[in-house]
């Protein structure tokens, strides 16, 4: 009995391995547009795909970012300046992409640009703090997708949306986690709608990786700013000790953050180049072994796990 089960499992894994290693053809003819290529995953992915011979259209937020990428890559890679929070910037980039790809259409769209801060306990933050993050991570991603979708449909290509393990389990207050839950929701409906156009949609869910997004000094500075902007009433209700534990908790998790950024860019590459891409890619051991399994636990257990080591707010009961 057990032997049959093991044999079935091995057969399943072999079939999956064989299916997943098949790649699409004519890579040098395929254009891939990536947002947020100044640093982190976007920067690395642009270089990686350029090295594989694809035609990379890399969108950077700054001129310096674009120049740096251009210096590190082949003459094939083209850059454009894009701020995903500005409709005119998106429209200009979409027109530029259309000119680059011509009748072939756009094979791949990688929505990678994102920010994390302002983050902190929710009551310390304002509507503008939430909007700032949602505008980049969710609304910007949606507008870029809608603007480029006709070109992706023409190529019967791929949409790759970067969510996060924080789109499965809310770890911090502020707009970051809601934006990533939103990316999951948007991608799910998009995948079903585009199936009959032969466009495939994949979601990337990284755990913690050492990129500028979660740089310790940047996070600390962000939290200091949030504390200094909060009203005296809020500070009194929660207390400095409660607030500070957010940074302490973040620092405790630092050792789990991986420097192997290629785990994420390899997943993105697979989503773009495999004939049968996955719907979701969990990247990093923390995502696979902690965030994902814990997200399936009963809510009261998850709440306990995430709060048991935290101090109570100053005026909490
Ligand atoms: N690092 C992690 O642990 C982790 C985990 C889960 C998910 N993610 C997701 O992975 C994606 C990439 O992040 P990363 O970790 O590689 O961090 P990153 O190095 O900070 O990359 C984010 C990129 O987005 C750009 N960007 C910021 N605001 C923008 C805007 N308004 N318009 C266009 N581009 C903008 C940034 O430009 P500047 O550099 O010029 O600011 C940067 O190039 C994000 O969506 C993030 O949420 C990261």
Provide an overview of this structure:
This protein is α/β, with parallel strands linked by helices. The chain has a single domain, classed as NAD(P)-binding Rossmann-like Domain (Rossmann fold, 3-Layer(aba) Sandwich). 54% of the residues lie in helices and 11% in strands. It contains twelve helices and seven strands. It has helices at 2-20, 40-51, 63-72, 87-101, 127-155, 176-194, 216-229, 232-238, 240-253, 262-273, 285-295, 299-307, and strands at 31-34, 55-60, 78-81, 108-111, 158-162, 200-206, 280-283. Strands 3-2-1-4-5-6-7 form a seven-stranded parallel beta sheet, with helices on both faces. The radius of gyration is 21 Å and the shape is globular. The termini are far apart. The model has no long low-confidence stretch (mean pLDDT 95). The protein binds NADP nicotinamide-adenine-dinucleotide phosphate.
Q: What's the topology here?
A:
Layout: H1 2-20, E1 31-34, H2 40-51, E2 55-60, H3 63-72, E3 78-81, H4 87-101, E4 108-111, H5 127-155, E5 158-162, H6 176-194, E6 200-206, H7 216-229, H8 232-238, H9 240-253, H10 262-273, E7 280-283, H11 285-295, H12 299-307
Parallel strand pairs: 1-2, 1-4, 2-3, 4-5, 5-6, 6-7
Bound molecules: NADP nicotinamide-adenine-dinucleotide phosphate.
